[in-house]
Amino acid sequence: MLTLIQFPWSPFCITIRHILTRHRIPFQLHNIACHDRAPIIKATKGQGHTVPCLIDGRHAICDLTDFGQEVARYVDRRYRLNLFPKEFDGLQLILSRYIENDVESVGFKVNDTYVIPTRPLIERTMLIRHKERKFGRGCVREWTTHRRYLCTQFAELLKPIDDMLAASPFLLADRPLFVDYNLYGVLGNYQFNGKTKLPNL
Questions:
Q1: Which of 46, 62, 113, 127 has the smallest set of CB atoms within 10 Å of its CB?
Q2: What is the pLDDT of residues 27-60, one digit of tens each?
């Protein structure tokens, strides 16, 4: 059986979880603290440290590139899901970059303002340290102060996606492709805290 090492609220973990669940692929979850990457490092023999990390027997896969979709592509090949059909390669790449870079970069900040304060002391401290190293000292406090603006910005970024979905239940085809799961993961992260609702689109 597959094992998915994850942070429950990670948009990229939510994406992989939903792909596995929707296609009825058996898997078990292994939740880890954000500052404890040891299970991933051991599973990948030092080759990776990021979530999601998927263990399939003696093989462990995690995303290694900046625009990583290695885990999703592994599942796609392994179970022949055809989530990355060749004819949609260019469009999926463009849309995925928009969803993962523009939309997610706002949505995760909103969710972090709710989730980080609920984590145990050590994990909370390490999470804040990690965020501040990347986004600057006091960033989580600043995101909390500007939460309403961030939610408005998130809604604005979703409008082009909403326009696409007005004509079809899926973004590019008559069935969900990877990019649909990608969007699901980013929206799931935004709502993970249980206090944030999707904009009225």
A1: 46
A2: 999 999 999 999 999 999 999 999 999 999 999 9
3-state SS class at 24:
coil
Provide φ and ψ at 7, rounded to 5°. Answer: -100, 130
CA atoms within a 13 Å half-sphere pointing along the CA-CB vector of 76: 16
| AA letter at 71 | V
Count CB-CB contacts under 10 A for residue 113: 21
> What is the crossing angle of helices 178-191 and 70-79, to 10°?
130
Question: Of 40, 58, 79, which one is at a domain's C-terminal end?
Answer: 79
Sign, Cα dihedral of 155, 31, 128, 99 = negative
**One domain for residues 93 and 137:** yes
